[in-house]
């Protein structure tokens, strides 16, 4: 082996065995080197072990990272570039994003309610205002559409009640729509605006027949409205003075704001 | 069947106590109650106008006449 270049040595032709010897120059720490040998086992012990998916290299959503090719990942989020903003404010970062002062529309419907016949107050339609939709101080507006569908005489009223259950018994009167006396089919849109302070609502007199509150009306100042629990809004038809009258509610909308 | 419990100008229904008081009806009159039909009535209270009907008992007593039912509340 003396006086031979390394390129002139006979090739081993197989993988390094644990017992093979490899010549090295070990630093003496003072700028010099000392010729020594290490075994194949010494060399292999310093190498990274073969990667085995899910054993010594993690997976992503159970998919191996081993193999060739590009692993597609989501690009880094850049506000207003590849993720939208809210009113020009970034939504990136940690913590809670408090949305305050926005309009809430917890209920809107064009459902045709149950037809109510004859001299009775009965529920035609209803919805549940989920708990904590509104705070103890809020304002909201309710619109509802009673419809008189059959009858040549008498009066139809569309009333609204609120209750903790979807039941009329024990319910609190919320509003009384204007009398509907037109012969045949007629539909009205009735409106109430409610100001709630410390879970007590102020609104137009609940027993007064009125289409809207755009004119001054005696108030009801003691309507309990505590939305820490769910509140059912009940759309009730009352067919007055004619057992043949039929009516139903055909739509509603509730919008409001927490204050 | 739901029961209404009465007690000296007050009623209790579904664990809520109501103080009976007048309300203004749609004619502008101060009334304590308003009959809606042969079986239904609006009762004025400190918590608004409450709907009751003959499906309720009053102090466990059943009624078939809305006038007697209403009178039993006061």
Description:
The complex is a heterodimer of chains A (259) and B (74). Chain A has 259 residues and is mostly beta strands. Helix content of chain A is 2%, strand content 39%. Chain A has one helix and 14 strands; from the N terminus they run ββαββββββββββββ. Chain A has one helix spanning 40-45; strands spanning 21-27, 33-39, 104-109, 116-117, 121-129, 138-150, 155-163, 172-176, 186-187, 190-197, 200-204, 219-224, 231-240, 246-258. In chain A, the strands form three sheets. In chain A, strands 3, 4, 6, 9, 10, 11, 12 and 14 form an eight-stranded antiparallel beta sheet that branches. Chain A starts with 20 loop residues before the first strand and ends with a strand. Chain B is mostly beta strands and 74 residues long. Chain B has a four-stranded mixed beta sheet. A three-stranded antiparallel beta sheet of chain B has the order 6-7-8, covered by helices on one side. Helices cover 11% and strands 46% of the residues of chain B. Chain B has one helix at 66-73; strands at 3-7, 10-13, 16-19, 23-24, 30-31, 33-35, 40-45, 48-53, 57-58. The relative contact order of chain B is 0.25. In chain B, a hairpin with a 2-residue loop joins strand 1 and strand 2. Chain B has one helix and nine strands; from the N terminus they run βββββββββα. The chains are: A mainly beta (259), B mainly beta (74).
| Morphology call of chain B | globular
Q: Give the largest interface pair and sizes.
A: A-B, 23 and 25 residues
Tell me the total number of β-strands of chain A: 14
Largest sheet of chain A: 8 strands, antiparallel
Q: How much is the average pLDDT of chain B?
A: 94
Q: Unreliable segments of chain B (pLDDT under 50, ≥5 consecutive)?
A: none
Largest β sheet strand count, sense and barrel closure of chain B = 4 strands, mixed
Q: Strand order, main sheet of chain B: write it out.
A: 3-2-1-9
User: What is the assembly state of the chains in this entry?
Assistant: heterodimer
Output the number of helix runs of chain A. Answer: 1
